[in-house]
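In this section we walk through a basic example: taking a raw amino acid sequence and producing a predicted 3D structure, encoded as discrete structure tokens. The instruction is simple. Fold the sequence below.
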Amino acid sequence: MSHEIVIPRLGWSMEEGTFVGWLKKDGDLVRRGDAVFELEGEKASQDIEAVDEGILRIPPTGPKPGSLLKVGAVVGYLVAAGEETLWTVPSPMTNSPPALESALPPAAAPSVRRQAREAGIAINDVAGTGPGGRVMAADVHRTRTSPQQQEPVTALPIANPRPTHGRSAVASPRARRVAAELGLNWSTLTGTGANGRIRERDVRAAAASGHSSTSAARAGQRLPLTSRRRVIAQRMVASRQQTVPVTLTTKADATNLVNLREQFKRREPLKSVGGSTPIPSYQDIITKLVAEVLKRHPRLASRWDEDAIVLPADDELHLGLAVDTEEGLLVPVIRNVGGLSLSELAGQSRRLADQARAGKLVATEMQGGVFTITNLGAFGIDAFTPVINLPEAAILGLGAIRREPVVLDDGQIAARHQLTLSLTFDHRIVDGAPAARFLQDVVNAIANPSAWLLG
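The resulting token sequence is shown next.
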């Protein structure tokens, strides 16, 4: 008897997932607990394990990498040895294999399907150019437009382009932002970054040569929501609806923080398994300092739990690290920050950030956080209003470190490094004064990092 392999629900709000690829081949023996395929659901990719045993049979119409599938969709079967499948049984009338009843349509967002219906086009007749053959809005538009009406869009040649090995174009977040500002369609460019990645300089070079005057640049675009973008939006709205957010802003003297990091940069690199331990970033040092401050102010690391406020233990100070990725903001969690050395913390934050940008985080690596730190300083931002990452009580935003004139205690004016901090907290859990005292201690810790780290 065959067993269906279906798309599971990885999160309570998950309705669909992106099929990443098979981890077993057609005809492989699969045992319970074996990883069969990889699925991206909500904000993480995860290996899906078999709950039954048998020989894996993948239908000819099985999902391709990048296919967007509903929870419960059948993607394959586990059969007994020698058991025939639907698509291998000859039809008694034609002696040809019948079509599968559950043939999967090409992946496309609901808005794209609606666009095809309005244009009177069958989605199966549209050749998708997105990841894994996904049908995009531009594909429907191209199918609807006659060849005489189409205007060919030629990618701007870039010196020494690197091959993309058949993958769809990928652009850095900065390149996407600059392209939007300049009104340029970045997907038509050839990138000079690693594996053909489109960089900011590629976009600016294209704009300087007049590439933005093409019809593709003049035409507006309708970007369908990805499942990940939709989940991010839903959680942002939930945070706003379920918390009473208040933001406090202040400045910290970061002169000693800058000096401490310079000392780390001048130090001989420490060797570790797999290579050298990375130099702690400003955010790494501040994350460690925040963990020490949270031991004195556990209310800022608590969560609202129906009829109680839950406070963490010192060994449960798991801090979230907001990471900007191609698919949106992800928050991997560093476990027990208080129990890590600064070198260990730097190594873990680098590993998690790299996995987030590569789309390799699993769901468990984004769960259990009690406090989140987000950093926009690299973009020249000073102060902003971070959004609380439910069910946490607070989030700390880091701005840019700038040299500014400061009046010292003796009345003299000196240039000092200044860092703007933005703390958003849930006023249901924490009042203004305790939140201000926490932020004051963070300011003191940043002004005297060595004393706090040694203490």
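Looking at the output, two observations stand out. Residues 89-104, 146-168, 212-218 have pLDDT under 50 and may be disordered. Residues 244-454 form a domain with the Chloramphenicol Acetyltransferase fold (CATH 3.30.559.10). In the next section we compare this with other chains.
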